[in-house]
Amino acid sequence: MTLIKTCRIFRGVLPLAATLLIAFSAIAQDNQKLAQEADKIHRKILAIDTHNDTALRINNPNSKPGGANPQVSFQKMKDGGLDAAFFAIYVGQESRDSAGLAKATAFADDQLRKFKSYTENYKGAAIAYNSKDLLRNKREGTTSVVLAIENGYVFQKNISLVKHFADMGVVAVTLCHNKNNDICDASMDTAPEHHGLSPFGVEVVKEMNRLKLIIDVSHASTESLFDILEVSTLPIIASHSGVWNIKNHNRNLRDNEIKAIAAKGGLIQVATGRFFLSDKPKEEVTVSDIANHIDYVVKLVGIDHVGIGTDFDGGGGVVGLEGADKMKNITIELLKRGYSEEDIAKFWGKNLLTILHKHGK
Fold first, then answer.
1. Quick one: angle between helices 199-210 and 160-167, nearest 10?
2. Any idea which architecture 45-358 has in CATH?
3. 23, pLDDT greater than 50
4. What's the pTM?
């Protein structure tokens, strides 16, 4: 190659490189501005995650790999601008005979007491039992823990146990997990048992309404969900679910389910587990995929009926949202998509506060 040709090539490459550098610089500046805007928003709003499985990892750090380094900690919540989270005591389902049921209740009791003690002894965190607690803790810079149970299996076949757990400070209960129980059918079980709510399940829903406990239908079958909506006089939530029309997964909600929940004043809290979001390889699923599900719900039923339920330490998390310290990345993505500050405030906490107010909390 002659010297003249080489010079001509460099004359062509240099302007392109300069253009790319300017473009990358502009993107970096835009991202910095969005991050600053997200910081500003999170200082003002109440940000709530309605589902994680972290309590069991904190209570039992050696129970499984990674247990000593959970996706959620009170410090990570602070770093990510997350003011409050529903810490669920997940109860795996074993036999439904008297011994198995009693064991489940005893386990939930023990784990609730341990996590309450852990929170009460942690400087800078406190249990929130209602909306006033959440708002006060926000003002004082205190991280809020909301107690929940995942799997109404713990109620055994004894309606008095609903009040027992309400008296322990539980605010929300996911009625089932992946298997049918004595309350209702589950979305992941192989065949229906009750074709929705059982007679005992109807009692449970009514008692939860009476005690102002939030009913969570994530994991419930479609028949169960519609039965619950028919019986409940208070709004319900799906604490960690996705959109079936984006990802065909039995745990996700179909359009008629989303519309029915919203029509009764309820919430669809979008989960962050890769398997609920996309068929793409794990390393390609990002915060953008979470936002696609949020967008879908908003377009279908409006901003007043959507929020976030990460399912951290239970399968949640994607690239860019590996833990609670990265929560502001959701806000940044929503800002990119044109959501207003008021929209974002509703998404993160105002919608959930509305549910609590309707429950007298």
1. 40
2. Alpha-Beta Barrel (3.20)
3. no
4. 0.91
